Each structure stands twice: as structure tokens, then as C-alpha cells.
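User: quick one - fold this with iron/sulfur cluster bound?
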Amino acid sequence: MPLELTQVTVKNILTRTTGFLREVTSHSLQPYRGCTFGNALCGVGCYVQHSRHITQGRRWGGFLEVRTNAADSYLANCDRERRWAEKRNEAFSIFCSSATDPFVPQEFRYGITHSLLEAMCERPPDELVLQTHSHRVAECLPLLQQLATRCRLRVHVSIETDRERIAGLPPHASPVERRLTACEKLRAARLFTVVTVSPLLPIAEPERFFARIAEVADAVVLDHFIQGDGSHDGGRTLRTSLPAAMAAIDPHSVSLAYRDEMAACARRIMPGRVGVNIAGFAGRYG
Ligand code: SF4
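Assistant: Sure. C-alpha cells for the protein plus iron/sulfur cluster:
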């Protein structure tokens, strides 16, 4: 299926957070609308596909709007948005991204995220959480190092399982091993690096997986689709083929008890460095 790719401009690239993200940052920022990882494994259960406001009836993974003025929009709006956050006694903090991936393949042609990171080096927020499913985040290492001297920076790399393939589902957008290696590079460069096991999928060798994460990341966050997909009971994900594929590997994995077991395993291996659900995304580990 061909990709519907358009170039658009936006008024304000900074969105004041609502809902579950309210606990994490004051603002969210999407360099693109749509996500070309939507055809990969993470796109199967991706909760963004349920937003009609975003898809406007288009197939998830089939469209991408490139926000060409993202950096200019950031620079034009960051002072006002900082004042808005400060009036509420909040830090001016940004989550990038909650409804796309900052390192979709098209990023390496259009450089929207790159230009935003440069703009943030010029006018930094207090904190940036950079969330991706791609190992290619490591290609921005020098820029990220520069930004880390100007603001608190946390790089979140989603790695939902240690399995390279889940039967019946498409391949990962980025191989598990390459994402782990990217984390290793980021951490070696002294960037605060977090593996987000989100949504948690059945793990083949939990002890080995968390031991590897303990080596390559500063912290880990576990998030199950139940309580983690923006609906109170995992209802959004239950409408997709993800739970059946998970249950075919391990029926127990579609329950919150599985998340708690995995979190207990992670805590044994990396005590004080494990976050669960939204508290973990907000940087609270125990
Ligand atoms: S990278 Fe994120 S936004 Fe894109 S399809 Fe995967 S889960 Fe959804």
C-alpha cells in the first residue's frame, strides 16, 4: 500500500498535556502526524490508531504529515508555553513523542526531529523525554550530548520483549538487538537511558533480558496494555490482534499479574531502577 505523505505547517508544535501524560510532562510534541512504524509490530496495538482526530479515517501506518515548520514553531512558542507551565508551578517539560515516533525512516530525509533538537539546544526546555522505538536515535548522539548540557534529558527506547518475532504479527520496526546496542551507546555517552518495556509482551528469558537491560540502561519501565493504553481496562488493545498473539505464546501474559511478576524479576536484578506504568514514565523508579 502506498504511503500518503504530505508536508504541512502547524501553529503551535507544543501541546499542553492532558490525560495520563499530565503526570509526566507539561507539554507533548509531535514532529509528524501519523507514524510509518504503524505497519510494524508496535503498530498492531498502538493506541494512537484509535484517535479519529489524528487518523481522520486514514489507515494507521498509511499516512505521514511532515511538520516542516516544527523548529520555527517551537522557537516562536516556547517562551509563552514556559510561562504557562511556570504559572502552574510546573517545570517546562516536553514528551517527544506520544503519537508518532521521532525517528521514523522519513526523519532521515526531512530532519524535523533533528531541527527541533537544535532549536532546543538554542532555547532549552527544563526537561525533555525523547521516546522512540528505533535504534536510529543513536545517530543523533552528538546533538543529544549537547542538549543534555542544557536541560534534563531522558532517552526512552521501547523494547517490548526479547523476542525478535511474535508469530502472527509483523516484524519489529527495529530489531531488539539493535535497540539494545543503541541503548548501550547512549548510556556509554552518559545520556540517561531508559528501556520502556511497553506494552509488555511475553518475554522468553526474563532474567537474561533484564540483566542485559541493567547493563545498557539506567532504568527500565514496565507498562502492560491493561492500565497502559489510555483506557481503564485495556479495551483499546483488546480490539486489536495483539492480545490473541500474546496469549498464543503465554496466556498468562494478558493479565496484570504477569506485569507484576516481570516487575518483581526486574527489581531483583536492577533494584531501585524499575518503574511501573505512568509513574515509571514520569521517572519514578523503585
Ligand atoms: S512507533 Fe509508537 S506511535 Fe508509531 S506505531 Fe509504534 S507505538 Fe505507535
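One thing worth noting: The chain has one domain: 4-281.
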